[in-house]
Amino acid sequence: MSQTTTMSPLALLGGTPAIQSDAGDLFSWPIITEADEQAVLDVLRRGAMSGFDITDKFEKEFAEWQGSRYALAHSSGTSSLQAAMFGCKIGIGDEIIGPSITYWASVAPAFTLGATVNFADIDPMTLCIDPNDIEHRINDRTKAIVVVHYCGHPCDMDPIMDIARRHNLKVIEDVSHAQGGIYKGKKLGTIGDVAGISLMTGKPLAIGEGGMLITDDLEIYERALAWGFYRRFDDSVQTSYLKPYAHLPLGGYKYRMHQLSAAVGRAQLNVYDERMAEIQKAVNYFWDLLEGVPGIRAHRVAKDSGSTMGGWYNARGHFVSEEVGGLSVTTFIDALKAEGVTGVRPGTNIPLHLHPLFNTADVYGHGKPTRIANIDDDIRQPKGSLPHSERTGEAAYSIPWFKHYRPAQIEAYADAFKKVTQNYEQLLPHDKGNPEVIGTWGLTAL
């Protein structure tokens, strides 16, 4: 590996960028081959875009890959999460507990069911919901805990499942960031009662647009069918109280997956494990190169934990400002960009509990904010109520999301990180500090 010079001028201050070569397809995603193209052409030429034969095969293959009894393909990850909530009998006046640091679709669909969300804080190292901040939020309205395996990092599921079982709560896993990830030897999505998974183009398992619900619970599966699948919610349904309503969707939704997405999904699933393994090898190598570098820490599972980061969606790092003279994360990122590092930006998702949607919006005309429209208590959470969630903007950042294990290229990016941290004192006189809000409401936004 090449060595950086401790006092080499930073590119942000007029020096030569550390990365001079084009990245090529190092970050290109998804990888589309002739197999994907032929699968799509087959559906197009048969005029089967609104059919179900390919989707049926995709569901069966996905369920087998997950190790789940049922898989139900949806039009989006959002719809799969809403259906998971309905499957768990979440309704008017109910509460779910979920993290504030996540994409809105993890929790916002509760509003459509007349329910609401009580946000829990995150563990500052995993960036996932903190098991220690859940139990005291449980009340007689609580029906489920929503966990998000954030940026590929598995939640600490053992204590969460213990809490859920002791309080008779359902656990909904949002695996949209971690398809194929493992927690202590168990596939993510198979630990809770039901999982919703986004499969849109930006995700590790990318099929175009779509989502998947997976569960081993027949009743949850059939409630999800009843919610948004009118042609499949038929006389074959076994759950007795659903039978009288067969043939029309209880939710009034139409959530079937487009067969072009299902066709791409089958082709991508065939090669996903191999590609996922290469991503893991590449990103782990990057972090190995930066082990012990002041100011930065890896956001990843321990090597001996029996867990993995899946496809490592929107890979993150921790920023330890006090180790680099109090440098702001925004200036740190600006310096990395100047060195030629792409795919880096400060922060995470902005905490949802601070957005007006969860504080003042009256979505359905109740005459008061939707967050508290169907409950007697005011559970809104002002600034300062979830300290770890509110600090992620200044304490985390995205790293290059390597899709290929190419040591020389990865070493160049690691050297750029080292160059910035080793020369942080050059940046301090020019550091204007962090803005009040850091991050985006959706991780893919720049």
Shape: globular
Q: Helical content, roughly?
A: 25-40%
Strand order of the largest sheet: 1-9-8-5-4-2-3
Q: Gyration radius, to the nearest Å?
A: 23 Å
CATH superfamily of the domain at 34-266: Type I PLP-dependent aspartate aminotransferase-like (Major domain)
Low-pLDDT stretches are 1-5
Distance between the termini: 31 Å
- What name does CATH use for the topology of the domain at 34-266? Aspartate Aminotransferase, domain 2
Q: Just name the CATH architecture of the domain at 34-266.
A: 3-Layer(aba) Sandwich
Structural class, from secondary structure content? alpha/beta
Pick out its properties.
single chain, 446 residues, alpha/beta, Aspartate Aminotransferase, domain 2, seven-stranded mixed β-sheet, three-stranded antiparallel β-sheet, 10 helices, 12 strands, 11% strand, disordered N terminus
How would you characterize the overall build of this protein?
With 446 residues, the chain is of the alpha/beta class. The chain contains 10 helices and 12 strands. The chain has helices at 34-46, 53-66, 77-87, 157-166, 218-228, 259-289, 329-338, 387-395, 407-422, 424-427; strands at residues 70-74, 95-99, 116-120, 142-148, 170-174, 182-183, 186-187, 194-198, 211-215, 296-298, 316-319, 396-398. The longest helix is centred in the middle third of the chain and has 31 residues, at 259-289. 51% of the residues are buried. Mean pLDDT is 96; it is low at 1-5.
